[in-house]
């Protein structure tokens, strides 16, 4: 855990060292990290927001080892493909476990509720989930299980990828070279992580508070 925190908080140093050793292979490494973080439900721990900010800040440096436009295009493709793979995996798992021979393993009512939710709020969920670590690794998978329309999912997938990749790369590119941010880069990464985790944490606390209130009222 300590090594992972050290990696997350000094991502700029690790990335610069990687570029110094492997050069243009850094593009492929970044592509794979973003693809896996968005495309595989088993890798939600990979850096997403902070990685994009750091990559954008490195691209803004004089004699930058990374170019901003190739970086934007590659990571945009990685993000879109990752979500598409995640969605299709969810659909396959849904067909096998909810509608196939193993349907008894899971509650079909949950599938129906998930399907109705994504029919009504699927677009907003896919867009907002892009900016929420961990949740963005699961939202496309759940959308696939909920049998969300593939065409509708693709529309919001592309839109959310443009917003996510574009905004964080741009923030890193235009803000990452500012003297104060360069001198306090670890604090900035802390801030990005905290801001990213705040919405799901607040949602969790409200949910727990509501559950406690219901349990208390029932006990009375």
Verbal overview:
- By secondary structure, the chain is mainly alpha-helical.
- It has one domain (about 1-215).
- Helix content is about 80%, strand content about 0%.
- The protein contains 10 helices and no strands.
- It has helices at about 1-10, 10-20, 25-40, 50-60, 70-95, 110-130, 135-145, 150-175, 180-185, 185-220.
- Helix 6 (about 110-130) packs parallel to helix 8.
- The protein is elongated.
- About 35% of the residues are buried.
Shape: elongated
* SS element count, helices: 10
The main sheet comes to: none
The number of strands is 0
Distance between the termini: 44 Å
Structural class of the helices, strands and pairings? mainly alpha
**Rg, please?**
20 Å
Q: How many domains comprise the coordinates?
A: 1
Helix content: over 70%
Q: Oligomeric form of this entry?
A: single chain
Beta-strand proportion: under 5%
Low-confidence stretches: none
Order of SSEs: HHHHHHHHHH
Mean pLDDT: 79
Q: Mind sketching the topology for me?
A:
Blueprint (H helix, E strand, L loop, with lengths): L1 H8 L1 H12 L2 H15 L9 H11 L8 H30 L10 H22 L5 H11 L4 H26 L3 H5 L1 H35 L1
Helix pairs in contact: 2-4, 3-5, 4-8, 5-7, 5-8, 6-7, 6-8
Task: Describe this structure in a few short sentences.
With 220 residues, the protein is an all-alpha fold. Helices cover 80% and strands 0% of the residues. Helix 4 crosses helix 8 (150-175), helix 5 crosses helix 7 (135-145) and helix 6 (108-129) packs parallel to helix 8 (150-175).
List descriptors:
mainly alpha, single chain, 220 residues, 10 helices
């Amino acid at each position: 855990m300590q090594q992972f925190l050290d990696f997350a908080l000094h991502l700029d140093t690790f990335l610069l060292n990687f570029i110094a050793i492997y050069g243009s292979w850094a593009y492929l490494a970044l592509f794979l990290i973003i693809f896996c973080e968005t495309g595989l439900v088993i890798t939600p721990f990979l850096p997403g927001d902070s990685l994009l900010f750091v990559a954008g800040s490195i691209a803004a440096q004089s004699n930058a080892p990374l170019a901003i436009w190739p970086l934007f295009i590659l990571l945009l493709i990685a993000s879109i493909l990752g979500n598409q793979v995640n969605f299709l995996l969810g659909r396959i798992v849904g067909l096998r476990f909810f509608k196939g021979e193993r349907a008894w393993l899971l509650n079909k009512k949950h599938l129906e509720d998930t399907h109705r939710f994504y029919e009504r709020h699927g677009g907003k969920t896919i867009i907002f989930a892009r900016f929420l670590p961990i949740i963005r690794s699961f939202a496309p998978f759940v959308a696939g299980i909920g049998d969300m329309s593939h065409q509708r999912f693709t529309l919001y997938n592309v839109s959310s990828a443009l917003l996510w990749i574009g905004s964080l790369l741009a923030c890193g590119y235009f803000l990452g070279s500012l003297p104060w941010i360069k001198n306090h880069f670890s604090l900035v990464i802390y801030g990005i992580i905290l801001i990213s985790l705040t919405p799901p944490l607040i949602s969790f606390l409200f949910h727990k508070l509501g559950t406690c209130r219901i349990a208390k009222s029932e006990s009375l």
